[in-house]
Amino acid sequence: MLLEVRGLDVRYGRTHAVKSIDLDLAEGEIVTVLGANGAGKTSLLRALQGAIKSGSGSVRFAGEVLTHASPAERVRRGMMLVPEGRQIFVSMTVEENLLMGAYLRRGADWHQDLSQIYDRFPNLAERRHMKASILSGGEQQMLAIGRALVSRPRLIMLDEPSLGLSPLFVNNLFELIKELNRSGISILLVEQNTAMALDVAERGYVLELGRVVLSDRADALSRDPALAEAYLGGHASSQHPIDQIA
Amino acid sequence: MLLIQQVLNGVMLGSVYVTVAVAFTLTIGVLNFLNFTIPTLFMLSGMAAWALTKWGIPFGLSQALPWPLALAAAVVMTIVASLIVERFTFRYMKTKYGDATEHAIPLVSSLGFLLIIENLIRIGYGTDAQRMAAVSWDTTVNLGGLLLRAPQLISLCVALVIVSGLNWVLKHSRIGRGLRAIAENPDAANILGVDSRRLVPVIFMLTGLLCGLAGILFAINYGEVSPQMGEDIGSKAIAGMVIGGLGSIWGAVLGGLIIGITEMMTIHFFGADTVQVAVWGLLLVALFVRPQGLLGHHSIGKGKL
User: Fold this and answer.
1) Which residues face A64 on adjacent strands?
2) What is the DSSP string of A181-195?
3) Taking Cα atoms as reference points, which of A44, A40, A64 lies closest to residue A54?
4) Contact state of A87 with B187 under an 8 Å Cβ cutoff
5) Does the distance separating the beta carbons of A101 and B184 come in below 8 Å?
6) Which site among A12, A47, B260, B292 is 20 to 30 Å from A188 CA-CA?
7) Is residue B280 part of a domain?
8) What is the pTM of this model?
9) Which of B171, B191, B246, B298 has the most A C-beta neighbours within 10 Å, making it the best mutation to test the interface with A?
10) CATH of the domain at B256
């Protein structure tokens, strides 16, 4: 297993956001985490990156225990979170944003990674010396993913990447996710767009109030009426619950 | 001609304000923290330079130092003092109380440092202004009838060089990018592996460097230091920073120079007693007309430098 999470618990203040979660992700896999707003998906990803402290439980990545590691240490080992809302640096140029992904990389070999990213995203190449604030929502998402790629991650964790994007961009985004995965990067995907997430993922976990209530292969989850219940609170009678959500 | 001379004098006086204002800007811009120890660090540098040229290192560890060495030692001492301040205001308060304190507790504890250090110096050396004969020299450059005193000219050059250097580091180096990332979005910076516990001391080192340099520049300019010297300069530097625009380094430069010129002009036309009224009056007018400052961002708050 590339990522092994056991009994992870996250609290902040009085909120018990993540309750004893077990989660596995094999090298090369796309795994999706589904759930309603407030189910603890974002807290889970942030805890996995070390941005918030986990109360108890353990996180192993590539065989190493990273439960108490700093975000920097996790980035060095190859974990990279693309946070909810992109969180690009709008006061910096496009290129400076990408360089932030290389913050922990020593040596100058990241130059070629940069040109690879410009090849992949020509829009970013055109605007490389412009402020990131002028980018459209979709371009900002590409920049956030590009920034993550410069760190040469083994695992990318995407938090609601399709949020606020036009349908065309959402399609591009999911194509990109598949492409990144084919190039050998494992992906942990948190998404509201359940149908598309289950379409690209091999396996999925469903969170409810901080707990894993369901985990299965993605195709099985697509057909599971209980999944509809997790979202719609009892409207499980529909023949195609996923279509309804999507 | 006399008026142009006064403007020039104002610019040179402003160079000390510029250096201190940039120190304020750096901590405000990156950490959103108004560091009240800055005037004290400035004073500490001047007083240390004086004490070292007069007596040498305390406890009989050395004879009186020659002035170049004393000035360098004063700057180093100020940097160390600034790091100690970081350890006991910013870092301690942050780790102990987390974000709940935001900026109020570091601010108050930095104010505590200001009062303690200033009063310790008063107890040690008295409140009198001290002559620094060793470093005051009076070479003047005559530029077509305009007189430029060498020490002032040097201060102006040092101030501009150090600020340009700092600006270059912030814009083009890896550490500079890290600092700007923390300034704009500490959470995103953290996720990307920017370790603020390692970068925050850099800010305090730079603060110490700027205050240390400003302190010895002041000493060279006026040939005189006192335990009170930080109060006046500190408040004018804050005024300059605000007029120039919070969080903008070139704004701090511009604001510092404007304060210097305002001061000299006020002295020229109305006499020295009216300086504070003019400077703070200008600040209030500036806040009313252009609250974000001359070169500041439109939204006051986070996302600076």
Assistant:
1) A61
2) HHTT-EEEEE-S-HH
3) A44
4) yes
5) no
6) A12
7) yes
8) 0.85
9) B191
10) 1.10.3470
Q: Estimate to the nearest angstrom the gap between the alpha carbon of B24 and the chain centroid.
A: 6
Domain of B250, in residue numbers: 2-127+145-289
Those residues whose C-beta lies under 8 Å from the C-beta of residue A21, and which sit 6 or more positions away, are: A5, A7, A8, A9, A40, A44, A57, A207, A210, A211, A212
The tally of domains found in chain B comes to 1
CB contact under 8 A, A72 and B194: yes
Whether B11 is covered by a domain: the verdict is: yes
Rounded to a whole number of angstroms, the distance from the CA of A110 to the nearest CA of chain B is: 13
Q: Which sign does the torsion angle of CA B70, B73, B78, B81 carry?
A: negative
Residues in A closer than 8 angstroms to B178, CB to CB, are: 100, 103
Query: How far apart are the C-alpha atoms of A144 and A87, rounded to whole Å?
Result: 7
DSSP characters over A72-123: HHHHHHTEEEE-TT----TTSBHHHHHHHHTTT--SSTHHHHHHHHHHH-HH
Residue B137 domain flag: no
The DSSP letter of residue A131 is B
pLDDT one-digit tens code per residue, A95-154: 999 999 999 987 777 788 899 999 999 999 999 999 999 999 999 999 999 999 999 999
pLDDT along chain B (305 residues), means of 10: 87 92 90 88 93 77 79 94 85 56 71 87 86 70 81 87 93 92 90 90 94 92 88 92 89 94 93 90 90 70 51
The answer to whether A76 contacts B193, with C-beta atoms less than 8 Å apart, is: yes
Q: What is the CA radius of gyration of chain A?
A: 18
Cβ-based interface (< 8 Å): residues of A facing B: 46, 49, 51, 70-72, 74-76, 81, 83, 87-92, 96, 99-101, 103-104, 147, 151
Question: What b/e sequence results for A118-127 when a residue is b if at least 16 CB atoms lie within 10 Å of its CB, and e otherwise?
Answer: bebbeebeeb
User: Residue A87, Cβ neighbours under 10 Å: how many?
Assistant: 20
**Domain spans in chain A, listed from the N-terminal domain onward:** 3-92+154-245
Of all residues in chain A, the one with the smallest CA distance to B175 is A103
How many A-B residue pairs are in contact by the CB < 8 A criterion?
65
Mode of pairing for the β-strands spanning A3-12 and A15-25: antiparallel
Chain A nearest-CA distance from B20, in A, is: 25
Asked if residue B302 belongs to a domain, the reply is no
Q: What is the pLDDT of residues B95-137, one digit of tens each?
A: 555 554 566 777 778 888 888 888 888 888 888 888 876 665 6
Rounded CA gap, B86 and B78, in Å? 12
User: What CATH code would you report for A3-92+154-245?
Assistant: 3.40.50.300
